[in-house]
Design goal:
It is a single chain. The protein is α/β, with parallel strands linked by helices. The protein has 15 helices and 12 strands. It has a single domain, classed as TIM Barrel. The chain is globular. Helix 1 (9-19) packs antiparallel against helix 15 (334-366) and helix 4 runs parallel beside helix 15. The strands form 3 sheets. The chain has an 8-stranded parallel β-sheet. It has a two-stranded antiparallel sheet with strand order 1-12. The relative contact order is 0.21. Strand 5, helix 5 and strand 6 form a beta-alpha-beta unit.
């Protein structure tokens, strides 16, 4: 199978699994504990049916929308995902370039392997930076100033990670920090020479946005990862969110919200949008799927807060269901990482093209010529 013969995100996932050593694939693919939430994120969409309307003029389909004060060509953008160098030597730049070509926004993770300045300099599309409120508040403030200087459009604060979830697949494969690869994992590296050779040829793995804060750079990536892990702060509260919102003073997303109560608190703290997310099922297991939280949150906050659905999206119909229930846009993580792992920038482009094509076709079949015409009348819970 080649990337051109992949006809949906599931096919691209299969190709990614063939391309990656097992520890890297399962790092993308796995979730926390029994992975109940991981699987629910996608299967929950099946509980909603679409109600099409007939004899609507759908000669021209307009997928353009505006979110985070940015006009997107279609209502899906790239969510933050850490350490993209693990999956392809094209790193974050490959994904950001593909997003720009697709007319959508790319979100860079704090834990990226490319600096926010390099992504801004070398790619042309709209960009958002994902941030944590770290123990070192000075570093948090530094990120804000660097993002302003580099021209980032929005800031995205992740709030559902006071510590990492229990990702048991990673323990089994040895994909821990530091790594503890067993014989099976080492054999998997040997059986995937393309990835292994590219890693040897391009051994530039580092957490580029925090590298300057670590003295022992001679020790390689591990001191950086240890430093980053040491900075997660379990004492963060809504007061800290308000502090960060004032520092940024622009489109501000709080990521990791599932309850209507927290959505309202996010708005009070200065958020202009919330990302309804459970971290891809990688944190607390047995929490609701994001799609199940959309309507209750929209009913609670009204129209004054943008809602972004993040989690489980694999099909155009998933996006349409989210919009019909009250979301303004959706974001994808695994959906494009599979493409990155499978074929670099071309793989991300293929994943985005397939998903956008599905959305356009599904809108026509639903009887909606533009995004604004999609409503709750088109979905049956």
């Amino acid at each position: 199978m080649t990337i051109k013969k992949c006809h949906n995100i599931g096919h691209i996932r299969t190709l990614a699994q063939k391309k990656l050593p097992a520890p890297m694939f399962h790092y993308i693919d796995g979730g926390a504990d029994d992975e109940v939430t991981l699987h629910r994120n996608t299967t929950a969409f099946e509980r909603f049916d679409l109600m099409p309307r007939m004899l609507v003029d759908v000669t021209a389909i307009n997928t353009r929308t505006k979110v985070l004060e940015t006009t997107l060509e279609w209502p899906v953008f790239l969510a933050p995902t850490g350490m993209s160098r693990l999956f392809h030597h094209g790193k974050e730049l490959a994904a950001a370039r593909a997003a720009a070509k697709a007319g959508t926004l790319y979100t860079l993770s704090t834990l990226a392997t490319t600096s926010l300045e390099d992504v801004a300099k070398e790619t042309t599309g709209a960009k958002m930076f994902q941030i944590y409120i770290l123990k070192d508040r000075g570093l948090t403030s530094e990120f804000v100033q660097r993002c302003k200087a580099a021209g980032y459009k929005a800031l995205c604060l992740t709030v559902d990670m006071p510590l990492a979830g229990n990702r048991e697949r990673d323990h089994l494969t040895g994909m821990t920090m530091p790594p503890r690869f067993g014989l099976g994992s080492l054999m998997s590296f040997a059986l995937h020479p393309e990835w292994s050779l590219n890693f040897l040829r391009n051994p530039d793995f580092k957490l580029a946005n925090v590298a300057h804060r670590v003295d022992a750079l001679a020790g390689g990536a591990m001191p950086l990862i240890a430093y980053a892990n040491s900075q997660f702060d379990r004492s963060v509260t809504w007061k800290d969110v308000a502090w960060l919102a004032k520092q940024w003073d622009g489109p501000f997303v709080v990521k990791g919200i599932l309850s209507p109560e927290d959505a309202k608190l996010a708005r009070e703290a200065g958020a202009t949008a919330v990302m309804i997310s459970n971290h891809g099922g990688r944190q607390l297991d047995s929490v609701p799927a994001p799609i199940d939280c959309v309507a209750p949150i929209r009913d609670a906050v009204g129209t004054g807060l943008e809602l972004i659905v993040d989690g489980g999206i694999r099909r155009g119909t998933h996006v349409i269901k989210a919009l019909a229930l009250g979301a303004d846009a959706c974001s994808i993580g695994r959906g494009y990482l599979y493409g990155l792992a499978a074929a670099g920038e071309a793989g991300v482009t293929r994943a985005l093209t397939l998903l956008r094509t599905e959305i356009e076709r599904d809108m026509a079949l639903l009887g909606c010529a533009d995004i604004a015409s999609i409503s709750r009348a088109h979905v049956i819970p």
